[in-house]
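Late entry, evening session. Most of the bench is empty. Finally got around to the prediction I had been postponing all week. Sequence below, unchanged from the version circulated by S.P.
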Amino acid sequence: MQLLEFGGLIVVLIVLLALDLRFFARGREGTFRESVIWSLGWLALGLAVTGVVLALHGSEDAINYVTVYLIERSLSLDNLFVFILLFAYFGVPHRYRARLIFWGIIAALVLRGLAILGGTALIEQFHFVLYVLGVLLLVLAYRIYRGVGENVDPDRNLIVRGVRRLFPVTDGFRQGRWFVREDGRRFVTPAFLCLAAIVAADIAFAVDSIPAAFAITREPFIIWAGNVFALLGLRALFVLVEGLIRRFRYLDETIAFVLGLIGVKLLVEEWVKVGPVTSLVIVAVAFAIGITASLIGDRRDPEGTAARLEARTERAPAVDHDL
């Protein structure tokens, strides 16, 4: 039964990715209005899947799915902040960004699927892994609280450095291609280096994403379904985030708080049981408070909000097109 469910989810995923790639801002930069409509549509679809989970698995798994979905959807915003930094660092033109985000989504889903399978096997064999994950979440919550941008330096990224050692790099984007052959030699383009950095970021985000999901449920299908529908539509959300980023001045603090709570939940679950409804309410309330505080702070201190945005987008080093 579970194998059939996974197969069906993969088919749905392929169809939805194809629709997104074909109909959302194909071959051009999406508009803010388009991004709002598409983002709301993806959100509605992700929440509507709760009904399918309810019919197939019952109410408890349905609540767990919503909780995982909301957590992963919120964490995907931090993915987008990292993408913004990487695009600025590599000087990626807007017309090439949608394709990079698309393949970033594919990489994230594959990596998280492997992490889910590996995490399930580990937890079944070694219960202490949960406590390791709990401590890891607390550490990651602290790092996010200090600022996601401070650790995003492609020059220090092992994957990017490895690619540069293996291949020479072109001085331009070559129509967004990843590899080109010039003068009998194979070159990689800055677009491919940016993709390598995105994959590395996906690995890093899987480290905090999957432990957070395991704190909610141990059911692999529920966790992966939450990840699938949270990451779908990330291209539209990217355009939306670029337009609304000033309104979320406390996003990092809110996510750090939620991850910290989940880490504590993992560490004390042997003595204190927190049900799925309680987890969902805590997550929803935390994000409602964070968003409300961000809106209020934006109105009271618009200059401070603009300064935070500038700090986020300028932490990456200046672009060097010679690479």
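Two things to note before I forget:
The longest strand covers residues 179-182.
The chain has one domain: 2-314.
Will write this up properly tomorrow.
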